[in-house]
Amino acid sequence: MCHEKCLDCFARWKLWIRPFFIGAYALAALVLVPLFLIKSLQDGFNRHDLEVLIAGVFVGVAIPISLWEIIQHVIHYTQPKLQKYIIRILWMVPIYALNAWLGLTYPSASVYVDSARECYEAYVIYNFMKYLLNYLNMEMDLEASLECKPQVKHIFPMCCLPDWEMGRPFVHICKHGILQYTVMRPLTTAISFICKIFHVYGDGEFKGNVAFPYLILINNVSQSTAMYCLIMFYKASKAELQPMKPLPKFLCIKAVVFFSFFQGVIIAFFVFTGAISTSEPNTDGVSLATRLQDFLICIEMCMAAIAHHYSFSYLPYVRPGTRPQTCCSAFMAMWDISDVGRDVQEHLGIVTSSISRRLRGRSMYTIPRGNDEYQNLVSPRGGQSVPPDFYQSYDEVVVNYGTVNPNQPVKTHSVETRMKPV
Known about the structure:
Layout (H helix, E strand, L loop, with lengths): L1 H10 L1 H31 L3 H29 L4 H11 L1 H14 L4 H30 L2 H6 L20 H30 L14 H25 L1 H4 L4 H28 L11 H27 L15 H9 L2 H22 L12 H4 L21 E4 L13 E4 L5
Antiparallel strand pairs: 1-2
């Protein structure tokens, strides 16, 4: 009898999951805050403790707002093709806020938590790109639609670059311009760890004999390239994205990822030049820059949580009468990162192939549609079997350009839609 009641209780998880999290969070706040204050008063309440307390208040507000939105998306998981990436984006605020607060509380461990935050920002840009591509491919043949549009010109200061051919080449350049940051950011983070081990990193030092300024330059170029490709993609598909109100979403991603990075660089530069200093003993410039960056991020994440609440709302996915996926399937889909591995592997393969073709004097996009080398960018290979986990849901749209046969006409722009069986 007790076993049946437990099963029935778990089956009704939607009724108690929200009050459970609210109660657990309130209980944790009522216990942890007094403990922190008691310990700080015993040790002597100093300026660092005040910073940790103020930052903790903002983090304590930001995390529940984001978790609430994530839980609502899990409950109303009616569009897995889109909500999977929205949930990953929403996790950015809790991860950023908690990482910054831990780095502020435990300065000796800040290098590790900050690195985790830096890698996740590249992951966020990747997920936002996938979110936009999936939204457009559910509504239309994206590449065919872009082919019919007028040429999108580069914006300042990239006006001197040659135009990106509309259609398939445009989508490829934008996608791989964003994917390169997903690869480059973890790579530079790993290099920074190695440089720190050999004491040649020079954190916060803009000198020629340390690795810090060079890695900052590489990250800056890589991130700027990704953001520029994202802006160009938005410029080309602005009309098609209008129903989902893309501008607030773009601003949220750009503000959190782009400005937080340059904020850290500017703070490090001002501390290095002496424009920002401290009279506290045993506090060097690197520690001061890290503290300022973590403190500001804790405050900024509170504002970002509110912006994400309205920009990535769950309300458009509330569909009465529609049976969403189960909690377990939604949770597993949220943490399944196999799509990232496939896209990164594809990105590396295409970049290698592109370099090889350019060395041989051939353009990257001279291959007709249907060639296996580039087919996976939008759809599975035409006419071939695909792995069982290729589709994240039954709502996926498959754009199949067919195969190229010299004795048959080339098939273009045929769309197949896998519908969930009733």
